[in-house]
Amino acid sequence: MGGGVMLLLALLHLSSLCFGLPWHTAARVTPTPSSSPSIPPEIMPSGPRPAPAYSPTHPGPRANPPLPNHRKRMPHVIPSPSFIPPQGCEGILCSDPLTSSPLGSPCGCVLPIKVIIDLGIAPYLLFMRIAELEVEVADGTFLKQSQVKIMAAVPSIQDQQKTRITIYLVPLGQKFDNTTALLIYERVCHQKMPLNMSIFGDYEVLYVHYPGLPSSPTSVPRETVGFGPSGTGIDKYPFTADVPTSRTRKLNAGIVAVIVVSSCTVILACVGVVLFVLKWRKLGRPPSVVSPAITQSIPKRSGMRSTLSSSMASSISVSDVPTMATCPLTVKMFSLRELEKATDGFSLKRVLGEGGFGRVYHGTMEDGSEVAVKKLLRREDQSGDREFIAEVEILSRLHHRNLVKLIGICIDGSKRCLIYELICNGSVESHLHGANKIKGLLNWDLRMKIALGAARGLAYLHEDSNPCVIHRDFKASNILLEEDFNPKVTDFGLAREASEGSHHISTRVMGTFGYVAPEYAMTGHLLVKSDVYSYGVVLLELLSGRKPVYISQSQDRENLVTWARPLLSSREGLEKLIDPSLNKIYDFDNVAKVASIASMCVHTDPSQRPFMGKLYRHLSLYTMITLMRLSMIPAVRERRPLRPTTITKGIGQ
């Protein structure tokens, strides 16, 4: 009996050594659910164990509180509440570098992956895009949006127009596993997050940190972004986090609210100051009243120091002002000396063509590039200045494959020049009626390609430009041809802008005889349908090979539209109308369809003419087979290209 008691005491002493308890308490029974209802029996601690990583401690009632004479033992830590979410997470506030668990996860503090990037967007523009940025980052890192937290957004030190963003990528559980963390690291560091560049611009990764990951980029000094006191970012962190009171949380929320309100106030104040300054400048500017019949002269300026703003302020009548929109130009300024050198002093040998507002010269710049230089004529009424300003204003903002590209301008005293890309294959007029006609290159397929491209260019001016642009002098000589016979519409010297919703523009009748619509010639009312009429005349030229005004066999001057209109309604008439130089190498059904479009375009009633957009769509359907055939044959310009000096008609026409 005595030996049994001694054996029992020895076992109790050994248990006290194993469990870190006083030997006289080791005999206590493990608490049951009834004695500790908040802790299930299957997770009750049975001895010392490491604390779970990165999770706050939420102690419940203990069955075995520590005794004062055992302070050096390992304290019992209840496992993470990941299994049983505690009620009421409002009071949890995690201290840096920990952050609260994402929405939908058990309350707790976890260690996030910290990312710092520079976004190519100003901070004030990013303010309303925070949620979109979270979605973009979540998609790029294969996380949920709730796992992405934007912690800070400040102007970048290197560029105030960029924003430095601090992002926390938060795990759903206690921590990221090594594979997931490495995958996120690689996608972030290698810029595989497909952020929307149209909204956020380009981005640069400055810093990525998480225990176990490789070192982050060196763009940001480590001491400014490291977590620990040493700034190395690799410190060991406690497994549990202190939970401050809700008072601290409320204080931080109040600070955030103050910052947001202050920022909004500053932004509104800045906007108000800008509006006030603009209003003050507008009121302080002296009004300039110009008679519609009298135009002012353009102040003399020289060379590269000339600016278009001084020219825009003059040479414009009151009737021009509503239709002339001011916008920043993207064209280059050339000096007169540069152009004189490029054209050999505007030599007659360099002349490409001559139009109503000046000659066009072939120029070779110092870098070897070839250009077309239109030198405007100086007139007493200074209409050339007005047309110069109109053409520059329009061409500087119109870009289309079927429009001639404006490269630059020159303003030198009273001299005005426009510099275009060089189109060295002549014009439609030169190939139909001029020096290039003997080449016999304009077969039916090429004529349809020209008709379709010219229609596309006019449709762009009428329907895709805001406000729409009326060419007012559309004709065969203003359709230039590239080497592959791609047409480009040129000569916007007479172009006018039409405000949206306006039915017509009352203006002085200008244009080329034979192309001018009858209502425009009689009333001076300029419509987009006036350009449609001119396009119909060009179609008749392509069909018949005749000029808009030609000399008949009786030596009388005949109008092409008057002659062709009765022939467009019958097969016999079309056979008489079609250009004999085509040698009947064409599809007659295709000819009939194009002729029907031409008939609608030259209708005497403008309301019966189609709009250019609808016309282009119909014509593209008719010419689809033709274009497919052109794409299947070798390039039509395998022959020796024409030299620019052989062109008799060009941009100035």
CATH class of the largest domain: Mainly Alpha
Main beta sheet strand tally, sense and closure: 6 strands, mixed
CATH superfamily of the largest domain: Transferase(Phosphotransferase) domain 1
CATH topology category name of the largest domain: Transferase(Phosphotransferase), domain 1
Number of domains as seen in the coordinates: 3
Strand order of the largest sheet: 7-11-12-10-9-8
- Which blocks of ≥5 consecutive residues have pLDDT under 50? 11-86, 218-250, 285-328, 635-653
Helical fraction equals: 25-40%
Q: What share of residues are in beta strands? A: 5-15%
C-alpha end-to-end distance: 131 Å
Oligomer: single chain
The general outline is elongated
Q: What CATH architecture of the largest domain would you give?
A: Orthogonal Bundle
- Radius of gyration from the CA trace? 41 Å
Query: How large is the count of helical segments?
Result: 19
Structural class: alpha+beta
What integer is the average pLDDT?
A: 72
Number of strands: 20
Give an account of the 3D structure.
It is a single chain. With 653 residues, this protein is an alpha+beta fold. Helices cover 33% and strands 14% of the residues. Helix 12 runs antiparallel to helix 18 and helix 14 runs antiparallel to helix 17. The protein has 3 domains: 149 residues, Alpha-Beta Plaits; 119 residues, Phosphorylase Kinase, domain 1; 218 residues, Transferase(Phosphotransferase), domain 1, CATH 1.10.510.10. The N and C termini lie far apart (131 Å).
Task: Provide a concise account of the structure shown.
It is built from 19 helices and 20 strands. It has about 650 residues and is an alpha+beta fold.
